[in-house]
C-alpha cells in the first residue's frame, strides 16, 4: 500500500478472545464501531456501511476481508464508493499476561484523493483514536462489569 500507515496500540484488561468477539460480532460492533447490516469474519467477505463527519457528508465504505486468524488478526481493505484509493485496516491482538494489546494499522491513506479534506490523514488518526481509545475501551470495560 502506498503512503504511511496510521498505527494505534491500546492495552485492555480482557483476554484476546473477548476483544476478538468485539471486533467480529456484528451485534457487538454496532455498540462501539459501526452498525453493519452484515458481517462475517471470513476471507473474501465484503461488507458495507455508511459513515462520515456530518449528516450531509456521508460516504459508503466498501470493505473486503483479506486475512483472518481467530483471536489474533483481522484485516480488510477499505475504500469509498465513487472515490479513488484503497487502504487496508489490520487489527492484531497480543496476549500479555492477564491483559491484551490491540494494534490497529490503517495503511494506504495517501491513496485517497488529497482534494477531499474529509480524507485527510489527521481525520483518520482522530477517528481511530476515538474508536479504539474511547469507544472500544468503554465497551470492553462495560462488558467486564456485566459479567
How would you describe what is shown here?
The chain is of the alpha+beta class and 147 residues long. It has a single domain, classed as 2-Layer Sandwich (Alpha-D-Glucose-1,6-Bisphosphate, Chain A, domain 4). The chain has three helices and six strands; from the N terminus they run E-H-H-E-E-E-E-E-H. A hairpin with a 2-residue loop joins strand 5 and strand 6. It is globular, with a radius of gyration of 15 Å. It starts with 5 loop residues before the first strand and ends with a helix. The mean pLDDT is 94.
The unreliable regions are none
SS strand fraction: 35-45%
Radius of gyration: 15 Å
The SSE string, one letter per element, is: EHHEEEEEH
Highest CATH level, the class: Alpha Beta
Range of helix content: 25-40%
What is the spatial order of strands in the main beta sheet?
A: 1-6-5-4-3-2
Number of helices: 3
Can you say what the CATH homologous superfamily is? START domain
Question: What are the defining features of this structure?
Answer:
147 residues, six-stranded antiparallel beta sheet, alpha+beta, single chain
SSE layout:
Layout: E1 6-12, H1 16-24, H2 26-29, E2 46-54, E3 57-69, E4 73-80, E5 87-96, E6 99-107, H3 121-145
Brief description of this entry?
The chain is 26% helix and 38% strand. With 147 residues, the chain is an alpha+beta fold. The longest helix has 25 residues, at 121-145.
